[in-house]
Amino acid sequence: MVFAGRFSSISKIYSKLFFDQDPDDPLPVDVLLRTFDERFGGYQTLAVHYVWEDLFWRWKHERVAWLDRLIRL
Question: What is the spatial distance between Cα 46 and Cα 44, in angstroms, rounded to a whole number?
């Protein structure tokens, strides 16, 4: 997984999804990566892919307000 930096949109989204952390105060990237490795092991890419699929399905059908702000809609 690639992160552009501590405050990238991806780290904000992952912090919200996996930790219910305020997107304006995301967790450090090393914490996110370590957690994914611990929770999902060799399947972390697959697990995160499923979460993205679910998130955008929900966004398409329900609109997720915090996500709209992050993806600039």
Answer: 5
